[in-house]
């Protein structure tokens, strides 16, 4: 299928090269599909020294959601997009009670996600958000499930991204995008047998230059944004405190269909 791979990155060219790009190469990704979006001309020059010349580099903007929205607008409307973080160490799949390296290539994974979207009139698919086979299942769930932003499929210029009636702050962006896609299209799709190995708290990243205040202040902002999402979507989301007293968001579980994983 004719799809594109979009990767947002900031101040981590070596991490991008050694993790996500190597992972994509292991799964036979076509370099002509890949575009790395960086924040500015200065970053472009840095990444140019690291990224293979077979992969396209483009300048976007700072901020996690802002960069994704800008990237969406560079593609023709309805182009299937696989959006990845820059530090994906591995695609892994559930085998019994264990996780093993995903046996397929990247085309297989993308084709499955978008084929289920086509069959269920969905416009967003993703993977299991926790790197733990115990919680995963050998199925694809269609309905409302949290779609984590490190690896997800969507369509260029989709209304879940472009609608002005959404929050755009980085805290809770994945939840907001999931909810907007569900509200506008009636379903999201999650492949519960696939996950990724990554470090969600590594230094750098597309938001790094925006994080000028201390952790306590950022945590207040994080709590505020998650509460805003819950307030805007009271029937679909609610906040709660994790064991470390950090606020988190929980989406209502809605299941419209369960599909066995491909053989």
Q: If you had to describe this structure to a student in words, what would you say it looks like?
A:
The chain is 31% helix and 27% strand. It has 7 helices and 14 strands. With 263 residues, it is an alpha/beta fold. The strands form 3 sheets. The protein has a 9-stranded mixed β-sheet with strand order 3-2-1-4-9-7-10-8-14, with helices on both faces. Strands 6-5-11 form a 3-stranded antiparallel β-sheet. It has a two-stranded antiparallel ribbon with strand order 12-13. The chain is globular, with a radius of gyration of 18 Å. The two termini are 20 Å apart.
Which key features would you list for this structure?
single chain, 263 residues, alpha/beta, Spore Coat Polysaccharide Biosynthesis Protein SpsA, Chain A, nine-stranded mixed β-sheet, three-stranded antiparallel β-sheet, 14 strands, 31% helix
- Count of extended strands: 14
Remind me, CATH topology? Spore Coat Polysaccharide Biosynthesis Protein SpsA, Chain A
What's the Cα radius of gyration? 18 Å
Strand content: 25-35%
Major sheet: 9 strands, mixed
How many domains, as an integer?
1
- What's the CATH first level? Alpha Beta
Order of strands, widest sheet: 3-2-1-4-9-7-10-8-14
CATH superfamily: Spore Coat Polysaccharide Biosynthesis Protein SpsA, Chain A
Please outline the helices and strands:
Layout: E1 4-8, H1 13-26, E2 34-38, H2 41-48, E3 56-59, H3 64-72, E4 80-84, E5 88-95, E6 98-101, H4 106-120, E7 125-127, E8 139-144, E9 151-155, H5 159-162, H6 173-185, E10 188-191, E11 194-198, H7 215-232, E12 237-241, E13 247-251, E14 254-260
Parallel strand pairs: 1-2, 1-4, 2-3, 7-10
Antiparallel strand pairs: 4-9, 5-6, 5-11, 7-9, 8-10, 8-14, 12-13
